[in-house]
Specification:
Strand 2, helix 3 and strand 3 form a beta-alpha-beta unit. This protein has 12 helices and 13 strands. The chain has a domain of 316 residues: Purple Acid Phosphatase, chain A, domain 2, CATH 3.60.21. The protein is globular, with a radius of gyration of 33 Å. 41% of the residues lie in helices and 13% in strands. The chain starts with 5 loop residues before the first helix and ends with a helix. By secondary structure, it is an alpha/beta fold. A 6-stranded mixed sheet has the order 4-5-6-9-11-10, covered by helices on one side. It has a 5-stranded mixed sheet with strand order 3-2-1-12-13, covered by helices on one side. The protein has a two-stranded antiparallel ribbon with strand order 7-8.
């Protein structure tokens, strides 16, 4: 019977364990989390016509594709590692989102982390190409974009490109527009442009009534907007609308709340008057925004105006960032279902639209709280196993030496039965010296001896075996990690 050494059993077990661990957290965990948020179609009126179905829209906020400008303080190598990890994770997130099979996709701004910076046309084209390679989608599925402050900038900053608006429009389309789909009106506005123009209006000490809108700007677009009868309106804005300081965002938010304020190149919310202008002009049933990176649920009060004497409310959802580099643990996206007219009920028992958030795995948490502790335990277990095996071999050698000396002195029987049972293998004087010198472990292992290959006839080295065992354990999980990452690319 062939006996497998105890150390190799431990190595095999740990290797299989790591294979299962990496496979689950790098692939199956993403698939599992993606299945936890189905499309919110249950609140729509059932229809006997199989051709009439809800219209499904996938909403993504703040992917902010990184480039070499994103983390200059980290140096070239750490910055490259950061971009690599974030890109691999975003490809997996997109695989989960795309598996929902949407009818359309909406990006709520901040498509590129450095899209507003001054760069050559060829560099910007390559930057946009990186975005398109990650978010590959069938050409039959429409994609809609709105600009964010990282795409076109906000305020006047010297390192912003003077061509940032023209570049954005040449690759992603218009800044302000509307789309009619599934008997809904989707209104897309340039929120950074709106905030800039509202600031100019405030400096000029004017109101929306006496302000002459900038040609082609967001305010001019809203002033000229006409409502389509019997169509619910959904507002898409990169920057959240104003809300009083101190109001929370619901239990799904990771931390903090959205507070009015701003800084160099950003603004937390739109102005109070500008937000009221949007609410009283559009009367949206739903507002979807980004920029904050975390999930936030808020309900706005819509005051009465002559066009709509009945006050009401509008729900705003700030969608989670799609990237793990935006200061949140779990990135995510939003699923929006629109009900065509046949799926609505006249008494409003059933909603004309509904949405649900989808949260993705905490990739950094997997690396830090799963892989790192298990790696430390693996190394400790391998070292303990090799240390026990080293002491066991030294004890067996001492036992054989003692019996050999007893035999020579006549303490052991010379009968064939005893000889066959207890007689040790002959050892030379050289081997005796080696045994004596290896009975006691070294005071400290010299790193140089860790690189001796196995089977060279040198004395046993526990440090070497630890490294070789860790190599044997890691080779297959690392191969699976590389294969999964390559497959998502």
């Amino acid at each position: 019977m062939v006996l497998i050494p105890r150390g190799r059993v431990v190595v095999t077990f740990l290797s299989v364990f790591w294979i299962c661990l990496v496979s689950w957290f790098e692939y199956f965990r993403f698939s599992h989390d993606g299945k936890q948020c189905p499309w919110p179609d249950s609140k729509f009126l059932p229809s006997s016509d199989s051709t009439v179905k809800p219209y499904h829209i996938l909403v993504i906020a703040d992917p902010q594709i990184l480039d070499h400008r994103s983390y200059p303080e980290r140096g070239f190598f750490l910055s490259w590692i950061t971009r690599l990890i974030v890109t691999i994770n975003m490809r997996k997130n997109w695989w989960v989102a795309k598996s929902k099979k949407p009818d359309a996709v909406i990006f709520l701004g901040d498509l590129l982390d450095g899209g507003r910076f001054d760069m050559s046309d060829s560099e910007y084209k390559s930057y946009v190409g990186q975005f398109n390679r990650i978010f590959q989608l069938d050409s039959s599925i429409p994609k809609y974009y709105i600009p964010g402050n990282h795409d076109t900038g906000l305020g006047i900053v010297e390192w912003f490109s003077p061509d940032r608006y023209d570049r954005y429009k040449s690759y992603f389309g218009e800044l302000n527009y509307e789309v009619h789909v599934a008997n809904h009106t989707l209104v897309f506005i340039d929120a950074p442009g709106w905030a800039d123009e509202e600031h100019k209006m405030t400096v000029a000490k004017k109101t929306f009534k006496d302000w002459d809108p900038l040609p082609g700007g967001a305010i001019e677009f809203i002033n000229n907007w006409k409502r389509t009868d019997n169509e619910p309106t959904i507002l898409l804005s990169h920057i959240p609308l104003y809300r009083p300081d101190g109001n929370g965002c619901g239990r799904l938010r990771e931390r903090g709340r959205i507070r009015p304020g701003g800084g160099l190149g950003y603004q937390n919310t739109l102005g109070k008057d500008g937000s009221e202008k949007l609410l009283t002009t559009l009367f949206p049933t739903l507002i979807l925004s980004g920029d904050d990176h975390d999930y936030c649920y808020y309900r706005h009060f819509v005051p009465s105006v002559p066009e709509n004497p009945n006050p009401g409310s509008a729900k705003e959802i700030s969608v989670k960032s799609f990237s793990i580099a935006m200061g949140i643990k779990r990135p995510g996206f939003q699923l929006l279902s629109l009900a065509p007219t046949p799926l609505r009920n006249p008494d409003h028992k059933y909603k004309p639209n509904d949405d649900v958030p989808c949260f993705l795995p905490d990739q950094l948490g997997i690396y830090i709280r799963i892989y790192l502790p298990v790696f430390v335990l693996t190394v400790a277990l391998v070292c303990m196993t090799n240390l026990c095996c080293w002491r066991s071999k030294a004890s067996r050698r001492r036992h054989r030496l003692t019996r050999s000396q007893d035999y020579e002195s006549g303490k052991l029987s010379r009968s064939p039965e005893r000889r066959s049972s207890y007689l040790p293998s002959p050892v030379s004087a050289t081997m005796d010296r080696n045994v004596k010198s290896s009975d006691k472990p070294p005071v400290w292992p010299k790193l140089f001896f860790c690189f001796y290959p196995r089977g060279t006839g040198r004395r046993h080295n526990a440090c070497l075996n630890c490294l070789l065992d860790i190599r044997d354990i890691a080779i297959y999980p690392l191969a699976i990690f590389v294969i999964i990452s390559y497959w998502f690319s």
